[in-house]
Amino acid sequence: MTVSDSSLKSLLASSKTIAVVGCSQNPEKPGNFVPAFLQSKGYRIIPINPNDLEILGEKCLKSVSELKQGIDIVSVFRPGEECEAIVKEGVKLKPKIVWLQEGIESKEAEKIVEIAGIPFVQNKCMMKEFKRLFP
């Protein structure tokens, strides 16, 4: 299911909280600078990384299954082969969209999200799309 630009723009505009699976402490990695950019635009970032206690000033969770509150976007910065298990947990939260970052694709994850009736984006950078849609 392809998400149109107008739908994507609407989803990004109405979203407030982003769970970032694979969020990183390293400012040179997309898993850090992309969520940092989104945080600078007013989004609340919930980092998910089992190896850190805090990233970008937010308490880190060890896995998606630890999420308790409503999440608007599940953003994934993990290899494609890990995405199926991640989105199985993520769709339970009924996010507005599940987003696999640039360079990440998973047909299995896409099927799970599609069955759940949730919009799905893969192999696109959320920061680049935000800048393109909100110049």
TrEMBL record:
Coiled-coil annotated residue ranges, if any: none
Alphabetical list of SUPFAM superfamilies matching this protein: NAD(P)-binding Rossmann-fold domains
Pfam family, one: CoA_binding_2
InterPro entries assigned to the protein according to its UniProt record, in alphabetical order: CoA-bd (IPR003781), NAD(P)-bd_dom_sf (IPR036291)
Stretches assigned to the CoA-binding domain: 11-104
The protein's name: CoA-binding protein
